[in-house]
Specification:
191 residues; 5-stranded mixed sheet; 23% helix; 3-stranded antiparallel sheet; 4 helices
């Protein structure tokens, strides 16, 4: 994909941003995740975190940086996503150019999750929050734009067998909510 095509699509996706959180869901548990795109680099890598193996929930999983809205976010899912990325991987807010809030989705606990797509500049080094993040994984955006890279798979999660969307990249598997978010990005990107 040529650079001008990438930026044209990012600008198109940036139209109609939903900010702040609508009052109709403000009483629910709301979270935000950042989809960081290293848009000026070859392949436009998407930055993911690998969660620490010792965590009680989602140990070792690959996910997008993010978390629950806090009072300091003042109802802004963009602020929450950028704050969480700064806390988890050391991505300073000045390195983030917010582009688009994608459609909200729900996790397995019923929380409302807002994905925030943003071109970002690579920091000198990733500063990982060691309690929560074991590493950073970068996957070319084009990998998520191919329909054939997605498959449904039965997985055991929280003591139940569930059907989950899965994307494999090398030896890594991205599944569940993160795979669904990337699939939604694919659909909106190609629309």
């Amino acid at each position: 994909m040529r650079d001008e095509d990438l930026w044209r699509r990012l600008r198109r996706l940036g139209e109609g941003c939903a900010e702040p959180v609508p009052e109709s869901i403000a009483a629910q548990r709301v979270a935000a995740v950042l989809i960081p795109l290293l848009a000026d680099e070859p392949g436009c890598p998407v930055v993911f975190t690998q969660r620490s193996a010792h965590l009680r929930r989602h140990a070792g999983e690959i996910c997008l940086p993010g978390g629950q809205l806090e009072p300091a976010d003042r109802g802004s899912v963009i602020r929450a996503a950028v704050r969480e990325a700064h806390e988890e991987i050391g991505l300073a807010p000045p390195h983030v150019s917010t582009c688009r809030v994608l459609s909200a989705c729900h996790n397995s606990r019923g929380d409302v999750i807002y994905p925030v797509l943003a071109p970002v500049a690579r920091p000198v080094r990733w500063q990982l929050q060691s309690e929560e993040v074991a590493g950073v994984i970068e996957v070319p955006l084009s990998h998520f734009l191919e329909a054939g890279h997605y498959r449904l798979e039965r997985r055991r999660y929280d003591g139940q067998e569930k059907q989950s969307l899965v994307v494999t990249y090398g030896t890594q598997q991205i599944w569940g909510l993160t795979a669904r978010i990337m699939h939604t990005l694919r659909e909106q990107w190609l629309a």
